[in-house]
Amino acid sequence: MLAKITSKNQLTLPKSVTQAVGATEYFDVEARAGQIILTPVRIQRGDAVRAKMAELNLTDSDMADAVAWARTPQAAPALAAEPLAAYAVKPAKAKKAAAKKSPSKA
User: Fold this and answer.
1) Environment class of residue 27 by beta-carbon count within 10 Å: exposed (0-12), middle (13-18) or buried (19+)?
2) Distance between first and last Cα of the chain
3) What is the pTM of this model?
């Protein structure tokens, strides 16, 4: 079978090929002896989490400690009492009505 690679390096695999390997979203890609080898990979969410933990050098013990800490009831932080006067609304100054001058007669 022939498959064409696009200008964006995208390749559409024939339906018969993908059906033969089963439904999968990801493939491990390897170049070997001038050939491109695609191996179906079924990624589990747990695998992704374990990979991220390994990347960050976190152990199962670190995760257990973090979960225990997160589940510990925490007291709400006390807020400092603020003077209410700082937020008091000051009444607007009343504007004096300007007396109208009557036009002078000459």
Assistant:
1) middle
2) 108
3) 0.40
